[in-house]
Amino acid sequence: MGILYILFFTILGFVIFNVLSKPILILRLKILFSILIFVFCLLQFTLFCKLGYMDNEKFVILLVFSFVVFVFHYGINSLLIMFLNKNDTFQDNYLANGFLFFRNYIIYLLIWVFQVYTILWGS
Predict the structure, then answer these.
(1) CB 78 within 8 A of CB 72
(2) What is the DSSP letter of 21?
(3) Hey, is 36 helix, strand or coil?
(4) Most Cβ neighbours (<10 Å): which of 4, 42, 111, 121?
């Protein structure tokens, strides 16, 4: 059952990545993945919790942790605006490129690794 949860959080992370960073999914896949996410959440709160797969508290913590990406996405933008002069562009500044790379790729990987670790070995 852990593999199913890992797959769910992978799909959720991919959909969030698609919305915030790189639009690579076609509309049909977005709709399909959104329906799958909704159905899985509904099953978790009604059936899976009662069967003892994962308690709802742990699931909600992992679900909320998935949406921390929005905080990083918009927080790094505001941080860059504060630190950079209005004349500098994001493409010419190494600090901006590092922050943008972290925001666009690394944070998704770190959150996914945390979720997989919590699902497989968390108590």
Answers:
(1) no
(2) T
(3) helix
(4) 111
User: Buried b vs exposed e over 94-111: b needs ≥16 C-beta within 10 Å?
Assistant: eebeebbeebbeebbeeb
Name the amino acid, one letter, at 105: Y
One-character DSSP codes across 44-106:
IIIIIHHHTSS-HHHHHHHHHHHTHHHHHHHHHHHHHHHHS-SS--TTT-HHHHHHHHIIIII
pTM of the model: 0.82
pLDDT per residue rounded down to tens, the chain (123 residues): 889 999 999 999 999 998 888 788 788 888 899 999 999 999 999 988 788 788 888 999 999 999 888 888 888 777 777 776 665 565 566 777 787 888 888 999 999 999 999 999 865
The letter for the amino acid at 35 is I
